[in-house]
């Protein structure tokens, strides 16, 4: 199914505010009007902000294997933020609990515009959750290489996978100092996260 995703701007494409997605690929980048006229049957999704390539989370292995993401039903007892260190050790984690935690952690990553994670994922339940999520898994940078704070996973171009995020930000650039709200995350052409 053809879908046109429109935003205030598309990163790396001055003057364009839309991408056309067919299945899991970007098939055109242009103006919303131009893409709508040439693809009358396409679904149109309008997002406020900047459309960027999806983000890669270089610390995903630690976030998913060395932290517990509490269930909302545990908020009164454990809070809502990930637990690490002594708090994690006190929980008595088993594989089932690790799997549930990883799924909640992956949802948290999707809500930040993440479309790719860096492994390796050694816990079986975490590895299964990552595989089922559909997020792209990337190899870690060589030891000693600096890891940038903001890593795009790929670029927006015709023929590339339709992996992108939209951030509620004014302007045409996203920097590590920004704390924008992610409005939508699309992976392989599928809308996996949308801010309510």
Write structural notes for this entry.
With 196 residues, this protein is of the alpha/beta class. Helix content is 24%, strand content 28%. The protein is built from 6 helices and 12 strands. The protein has helices spanning 32-38, 60-65, 75-78, 85-89, 95-110, 124-133, and strands at residues 2-6, 9-10, 18-22, 25-30, 43-46, 50-53, 55-57, 114-118, 136-138, 164-168, 181-187, 190-194. Helix 5 packs parallel to helix 6. It is elongated. The two termini are 23 Å apart.
What is the secondary structure topology, with strand pairs?
Blueprint (H helix, E strand, L loop, with lengths): L1 E5 L2 E2 L7 E5 L2 E6 L1 H7 L4 E4 L3 E4 L1 E3 L2 H6 L9 H4 L6 H5 L5 H16 L3 E5 L5 H10 L2 E3 L25 E5 L12 E7 L2 E5 L2
Parallel strand pairs: 1-5, 2-6, 7-8, 8-9
Antiparallel strand pairs: 1-3, 3-4, 6-10, 10-11, 11-12
